[in-house]
Amino acid sequence: MIGTTFNLRRGGIRRFRVPDGIIIFSALAFLIGYLIGVFLIAGNNAVFLSFSKAQFQGLLSLKSGAGFLRHTFMRFLSFLPFMVGCYFFGTSILGCAFVPAVLVVYGLNLGTLISYIYHVYALSGMGFTALLIAPFAILSGYILVLAARESLGFSDRVLKNALPHGTAFNLSNDFKIYTIRYIFLLVFCLLTAVLDAFCNLIFFRYFKL
User: pTM (2 decimals)?
Assistant: First the structure.
């Protein structure tokens, strides 16, 4: 975002960059969820250790036995519920509460998985994560943060329209733009899944976990 201010000393307008507050808030929600997942595994929480073990074994089974197209489809499908959740929560007045919750859950999901891999496999697990987990995790997390920004912005408009003396917005046109942006984000999700399948094709044979 670009802001402006009047510079008295120079007698002119100075432009400056303003951090996108919604992006920062969304990224923090994701990071909080991730850190909670890390601490739960580090604390040997039996429930989450069991959950992460099942999650990792399912992922390992997919990576070892699925073809390129099936791997792409399944990875895309695994991420889709979080995008759909953000999209639909963004169309309601409750989006400001539930969209961050989706980010926390996704962060928690990744945090427990990555921490479990390191907890059990140590250095070989770090290599596995760097080459076969991190590319998809980083890109999908970034895409979800961008989706959350769209959802929180649209939810804010819905809320203001719902208030008795709120600001009137043309939600019909805004909803079209909102949906189109989500379609583009879903295309990027699919490309991220394709990248993950390529990484798996190239690097999986080097690991015996």
Answer: 0.85
Task: Identify whether 100 is part of a domain.
Answer: yes
123, containing H or E segment: helix 95-128
**In this structure, is residue 53 part of a structural domain?**
yes
Coil, strand or helix at 165: coil
> Is position 26 within any domain?
yes
Tokens of 61: 């089974």
Number of separate domains in the chain: 1
**Residues 156 and 78 sit within 8 Å (Cβ to Cβ):** no
Q: How far apart are CA 4 and CA 129, in angstroms?
A: 43
Residues 6+ apart with CB under 8 A from 156: 95, 96
Residue 157: count other Cβ atoms within 10 Å of its Cβ: 20
Range of the domain at 186: 22-206
Q: Is residue 7 assigned to a domain?
A: no
d(Cα 52, Cα 58) in Å, to the nearest integer? 10
Nearest to 117 by CA among 138, 132, 139, 135: 132
Read off the pLDDT of residues 6-55 as tens digits, 9 standing for 90 and up: 344 454 444 444 446 888 899 999 999 999 999 999 998 889 999 999 99
